[in-house]
Each structure stands twice: as C-alpha cells, then as structure tokens.
Design brief:
disordered N terminus
Length: about 575
C-alpha cells in the first residue's frame, strides 16, 4: 500500500511513506517498486519517480509510526515539495557514509505481526462460510400462508422482498436468504407443526470433523413430509374423517442451498396415520393399560413414527395392571376347575321374545333375507378331536383342562378382561392363529392344548370349506361373566370400537365351540343401516332368541345373519360354573 508519484518527491512525501509502516514490528516485507504510485498534484511539473530509478532507491530501515492525521495511502499537501536531490542526505548516516541501497526490484517493509495475521485469516474464513438459501414454494391449494422464522440469517433484500402474505395456487414463489455463517429457522403453515431447518450448521456427527450440514425436520435429513390437521375422528374401519395439510420439504447440500416446498391437501392414508397418532397420544395421556396397548398395536399397523411407538411402549411397561382387569394364576386355578362345571336346572329349551310393539313386525319373521344361517350343533368337539383326545377322557373335558393349564403357564396378565369376560392371548394380545398356537406351544410344542386347537381348526376348515383367520379363547369363570351384544368383525371396514386391533380379511362366518358349563347365547335382530330388517316404529324392540350352548356343542352363523343380528352371552340368572369358548373366524 505504498503510493509514489511520477512528480516531485519531497520530505512530506517521505513522511507519508513513513506513515505506511505504522504498526508493523521488525521483519521485512518486499513491495515491488513498479507497483507503487502516489497521487500527485495536477498543477505541478512532471518529474520521474525516484523509486523507479536505479540511481535513487528508498530504504525504510526501522519500524515506523502511523500518524492518525496521515493515514496510509492519503493524498499529500501541496506545500513542502522537495527535489530528488534532497534524498541524497536521507541515504547517509551520521558519519556521512553512504548506506548500501537495496535492489531496484522492491522496497523492504516490516512483516505483519501474528495478531494482525490471525485476524485476516478469520475474515477470510467467515467469507468462505457465507451461506445462501433459496426457498421455492409451490402451493396446490388455495389460501396458503407460509412464513419463515429465522433465528440466524436474514432476508436477502437485494434479490426480492420476501414472501407474499398469501401464496397463489399452482405458482412457484421464491425468496432468498443469506448469512455470514449459518441460516437456521422454522417453516410455519397454519395447522401444520413447525418444520425446523438449518443451512451450514455443525451437526452432532460432524462437529469433530468440522464439516457443516443442511437439514430439514431433523439432523442429517434432507427430505421430510409433515402432516397437520385439527382433531380427526377415526372411523369404524381404516379411514378417518376430517381435512389436513401436508408439507413436502427437501433441501440440497452446500453453502448455496435450494429448498423446495410443496403444500397440498392431505391424502386419506396420511389423515388415517395422523388420526392414529392423535389416538396414541391420547391413550398415553390417560395411562390405561388396555387402551394404550391397543393403540400401540394399531399404530404399528398404520406405520406411525417408530420413535412415538417406542415412547408409548416404554410407558406401557411402567403401568401396573389393576386388580380385576385380569385373572391371576391363583384365580385361574381356583375358579377354572372342571369339577365346578354346571348344567341348567330348569330345562334347556330355546326361548323366543318377539317384538313387543307389533305382532306384525318384520323382526318376528325369523330372517331378514334368504340365505341366513344360524345353528347350534351338539357333540362337535368330540367329532373334531376324534383320535386326538385320549379315549378314557371326554374330549370336551380334556380340551378344557388343557387350555387352563396353558393359561397357568402363560405370564400373568395374558388372561385379561374384555367386554365382560376374559381372553387368553399373548402379551401383545394378538389373536391370529399363528400367535395363539405359538402361545400354547411356548413351553412345549407337543402339549395337549396346541394339538387340540390345531385339530379344531382343521375340522372347521374341512367341514365348512373356510380358512380360519382368527382364534378367540374366551374364559367365563362364573355366572357373573358375560359377553356383550356384538357383531363379529368380517372385514377392514368393521371395527369394534376405537381400541379394536382386528385387521382381518373379508370373512364369511364364525364357528364357536363351547366347553364346560352350559350358557345361553342371546341372538337379537337389528334395524340399523347395515341390517335388512325394518323397524315397525319408534317403539320397535326387535326379536330376541336365547339359544343354549352345552359343553361340546358348536354354533355356526354366516355373513348375512351377522349383518342382520347381534349375539352375546348375558349374565346367568342362576349360579353356574366355568366355561371356555373357542371362536374361530372364517374367510
């Protein structure tokens, strides 16, 4: 930064040059004389610069002080000019001896000190780390309002004025942002959770290497899909009712990043997944074991985020089952004994209660459409287990006792209360044939319970031409147990409530085998949208039929009958002993 004029070079010029060296300690920096110019005055006569002449080089031999009034590179005043001959004295010492001039190629200046050098390096580093981000937004719906909230960085006003308040549908709008370091912030759209992002930030994995990353939603993710909606309602099947919004966001790598955003309406599957997330969070807040376990199972089927499912699973393990919500091993061994089995004392004939509102009610006709089948057949267990059960023991008693032993071998909590009775399942409450057989074979693959259940399944498939898709093992310890009125679930569009975890294929019928004490099954006509029956009026009570099921019998009904009726096991009017039913859902 030395400037030299083609005109006269006097003492004040030398002072100006001396000021250039201010702040530099000892050491030398070579500056080419050919590159040095000092602006002179236009009204003076041109003279050759002494620094460009081999006969008159200039030496700056010691550290100099920079004057605040004469900064480096400033213009000199018009007064105090000197001729080139005045420099001869400047090149001699006190004894008058001439000093050896340097080479004509440059001028030696003191070297830059360490602190000055480090500050320059820091400035160069920040310049290299300058980040730029271009956000392109394409809405596929009307009235989209998107904002970018920055905690680091700023809008690049040189390029545009930012995003409009409402984005036009079908058109891409862009905005540019910049920063001397990182760009960090959140994307916000009404009704959608904020989406965090970062450009050229230090990630947890890259902090040691010093590299920087770009991300959306979470570290080391460059693409995400976020769904938002109000409170959604899960339907009876796999769907959910309501509307939602989806953000599809992706970002490129590097310091000049491009972020592409699509805003669109949520699809049916996305709404179902979000509704399931809401149901899972609600179950976690309530802390009820059965509800939480059911929602975890449903969340796995609907592919809810694994991190949320893991969090719910940890909470589930911390919940202690309350007394009465499951049968303990002590209760099983005490109540589920074959010697407690009872039979009705006042006869076992079927009982029919017709509609009280009208004798001509269609519910009293016996069937709502041709093809309905509902029948109870005796001695079906004995027939199914012929050759499997030992000949010296009745087949129904042998299977009853085998299932009780399997329940006692299972962990406590596997016989849990549901709709008035108890179910035997694995810890996940899975009722698929594979899961039930695996539970029975947990300690011994050749145990009696496993062999008997597989024989019942084979007999059912052979006799009815179906394929068994689910097995339900119902435990009724005494007359106080019941099974509330219901339709069996024959497809994905049919659910037994918000906590139902069934996901069966389209089914055609049910076969239910009864073991132990005799109980009545209540069959009742329905007049809802799903049924073919029509109510005779507002006071229509429908028809109820009470069918007895004795030990060893089996009840079969098909899909048309299931659509037009419900069935269940009411509490007994007199004391009775334990009962187990094996219900097989058939496709």
């Amino acid at each position: 930064p030395i400037a030299c004029s083609r005109r006269g070079f006097g003492p004040k010029h030398r002072d100006a040059m001396a000021a250039v060296g201010s702040g530099y300690p000892s050491g030398e920096l070579m500056v080419s004389a050919a590159d040095c110019e000092l602006e002179g005055d236009d009204d003076e006569e041109e003279e050759s610069c002494p620094l460009t002449s081999a006969a008159c080089p200039l030496i700056v031999a010691s550290p100099l002080h920079r004057s605040n009034s004469s900064p480096a590179g400033s213009r000199t005043s018009k007064s105090g000019k000197s001729s080139p001959s005045n420099y001869a004295a400047a090149l001699t010492g006190d004894d008058g001896a001439a000093e050896k001039p340097p080479s004509r190629d440059g001028v030696r200046l003191p070297a830059i000190n360490a602190s000055r050098a480090s500050s320059l390096v820091g400035k160069r580093s920040s310049a290299v780390a300058r980040s730029q981000l271009t956000i392109n937004i394409t809405p596929q719906m009307e009235g989209v309002e998107l904002s970018v909230d920055l905690t680091e960085g700023e809008l690049d006003c040189r390029q545009n004025d930012g995003l409009p308040s409402k984005l036009p549908k079908g058109k891409t709008t862009f905005a540019d942002y910049r920063s001397s370091g990182s760009i960090v912030g959140q994307l916000r759209v009404d009704g959608v959770p904020p989406v965090p992002f970062g450009i050229q930030v230090e990630g947890a994995r890259s902090s040691s290497s010093g590299s920087r990353i770009n991300y959306v939603a979470a570290e080391h993710r460059q693409r995400t899909v976020v769904t938002g909606a109000g409170q959604l309602e899960l339907g009876s099947g796999m769907g959910a009712s309501g509307d939602g919004t989806v953000l599809e966001v992706s970002v490129t790598v590097g310091i000049h990043a491009v972020m592409n955003i699509i805003v669109r309406p949520a699809k049916k599957k996305e709404l179902t997944k979000l509704a399931q997330e809401q149901a899972l969070v609600s179950a976690m807040e309530k802390g009820r074991y059965s509800s939480l376990l059911a929602q975890i199972t449903r969340s796995k089927m609907r592919k809810v985020e694994a991190s949320l499912i893991d969090q719910a699973s940890r909470l589930l393990k911390s919940i202690q089952l309350k007394d009465g919500t499951f049968m303990t091993h002590n209760e099983l061994s005490k109540l589920m004994r074959w010697k407690r089995v009872t039979s009705p004392s006042n006869g076992s004939s079927d009982i029919t209660e017709s509609c009280c509102a009208s004798a001509d009610c269609l519910c009293n006709a016996g069937e709502a459409e041709p093809g309905e089948v509902c029948s109870v057949l005796s001695d079906q267990v004995h027939e199914a287990l012929d050759g499997i059960a030992p000949s010296e023991v009745p087949a129904d008693k042998w299977l009853f006792q085998a299932l009780v032993k399997a329940a006692l071998r299972s962990p406590e909590g596997c016989v849990w209360k549901s709709q008035g009775k108890f179910l035997l399942t694995n810890e996940e409450r899975n009722q698929s044939p594979t899961a039930i057989v695996s539970l029975l074979e947990r300690d011994n693959q050749e145990n009696d319970a496993s062999k008997a259940i597989k024989a019942l399944v084979a007999h059912t498939e052979r006799e009815y031409g179906f394929r068994v898709t689910a097995i339900q093992l119902n435990f009724h310890p005494n007359q106080q147990s019941s099974h509330r009125q219901h339709r069996d679930i024959y497809g994905a569009g049919q659910k037994g409530g918000i906590n139902c975890t069934c996901s069966f294929m389209k089914c055609q019928g049910t076969v239910c085998y009864s073991l132990g004490s005799s109980r009545q099954v209540q069959c009742e006509t329905m007049t809802d949208k799903r049924s073919k029956y029509k109510a005779c009026g507002e006071e229509c009570t429908g028809q109820k039929v009470y069918k007895w099921m004795h030990s060893g019998s089996a009840m079969f009904f098909n899909d048309p009958w299931n659509n037009n009726h419900t069935h269940g096991v009411p509490t007994a009017t007199e004391a009775c002993g334990p009962r187990i039913s094996v219900a097989l859902l058939c496709a």
